[in-house]
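Notes from the 1:1 (GR / supervisor)

We went over the backlog. Supervisor wanted to see one worked example end to end before approving the batch request, so GR pasted a single chain during the call. The sequence is below; no edits were made to it. Supervisor asked that the structure be written out right there so they could see what the output format looks like.
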Amino acid sequence: MSNSLPLQWFNDRLGTANGLVKLGGGVGATVMALVVQQLIDKVGIAWTFRVIALMSLASGIPTALLIRERAPPSSSSINMSPFRNLTFFFLFVAGFVGIFALYIPSFFLPTVATSIGLSSTTAAAVMACYNACMALGRLASGIACNKFGSTNMLLVTMALNAATMLAIWSVASTFAVLIIFTALNGIANGAFFVTMPTAVGRLLGPHAAPAGIGMAIAGWSIGDLLGNPIAGFLIAATHADRWVWSYCYMYLNNAVMFLCKRILA
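Structure output shown during the call:
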């Protein structure tokens, strides 16, 4: 809903609208990274999950009651027409490939932080910094999409992702270097979730874009499910040698960059 609803209400400033919507999630994630660690320390894991569930319920119900859709519901249960557009097909494949690697830093940052000697509290602060930078990346990329084009910004986003993984993540053995990676990769990571739906929305228009975005997100589900387990297997198989899976991450991002170039050609 957060990906498709802005399409129904915004056109010229669609990127900014998407950035603001995603900004809320980034701010919430920043706060929750610190809150969850405090809850675990004070009330345990079980009650931490209960508190999170109650918070989601308290915020989700009013939101569901207040939001309004502008476009009429589609008469077709499955609309495959966006795939007839070759540019959309390339965007779909770019998202399908890129999402495999996108959640790896946020999932493994606490593990890496503790492996270099940081406390669990400091590791939580690193995650809060990562989420804050994701929020910044979401807002900034949304504004930039209006000025430079959403597909151009998607290409820049994935290039920054690949560069930070290869040049910084693989050698982040101190707190200072880890924070540099956290900031830059967080910005790039957050920008993906704005630039991709904005690119689809610009391409397909307000009527076809909701179906297209739904298909794109459905394509992400495989990477959501398998990306982190594959990374975990690589860590175990290589004794946590980040050079190996940094290269894997880089090649995935390079594949997405190639697809973006093909779209722009």
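Supervisor's comment: Residues 4-77+84-264 form a domain with the Growth Hormone; Chain: A; fold (CATH 1.20.1250.20).
Batch request approved.
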